[in-house]
Design a protein that fits this description.
By secondary structure, the chain is mainly alpha-helical. It has helices at residues 2-23, 34-51, 67-82, 87-101, 132-135, 138-150, 160-168, 180-190.
Length: 193
């Protein structure tokens, strides 16, 4: 008898708990709380931190982007996805383009030009990056950069500036690092948009 009574009480208690759980959300305001916002913010920070696995190197620079520059960010991200590469590859690409052109698709700059460098990545037709028409096409130039990046053994495990420099062979190899935070922020903002 004691056993039947105990099972009945436990059964009723279980129904009460289950009913309370089922009815709970219906009886509470579902608006996000400050705690929910903190958790969401923390998740966003974790995502951004994953885009910068080695932490930022040195002082960081930042520029406000025009609509054209933002369109170029989106073009770099689209080309990265099309190439089957991940968000980290997009961070390296965007940081490189920020350093090389401030995300402006530059044509020949005459006397101010560095040799025959053009486009987002300041690639040179004379160095085999493609024709002027090709390297001033954001998709093509990004794909060409990513092709070079794929050939760098272990680029995923390198600091951004080393990975970018191995592809670009710049006279200023450490300058890419200053754009890593902004590049990561842009990828976090636009990767799923």
């Amino acid at each position: 008898m004691n056993s039947i009574l105990r099972k009945s009480i436990l059964g009723i208690a279980g129904l009460t708990v289950a009913g309370g759980l089922a009815a709970g959300p219906l009886n509470h305001d579902t608006a996000p709380t400050a705690r929910d916002a903190a958790v969401t913010t923390q998740a966003a920070k974790l995502d951004t931190a994953a885009l910068i696995p080695h932490g930022v190197q040195g002082n960081q620079s930042h520029i406000d982007l025009t609509d054209e520059q933002t369109a170029n960010v989106k073009a770099i991200i689209a080309a990265t996805k099309k190439a089957g590469m991940d968000e980290r590859a997009a961070v390296v690409s965007i940081a490189t383009a920020l350093q090389e052109s401030k995300l402006e698709n530059l044509g020949h700059l005459g006397d101010r030009n560095d040799h025959d460098s053009q486009g987002l990545f300041q690639q040179r037709p004379s160095s085999g990056w493609g024709t002027v028409e090709q390297i001033t096409d954001p998709e093509y130039s990004t794909t060409a950069f990513l092709k070079g990046l794929k050939q760098v053994d272990g680029w995923q495990d390198m600091p951004l500036t080393k990975a970018a420099q191995t592809v670009q062979v710049s006279a200023y190899p450490d300058h890419y690092a200053q754009w890593e935070q902004q590049a990561a922020d842009l990828v976090a903002e636009h990767w799923n948009s």
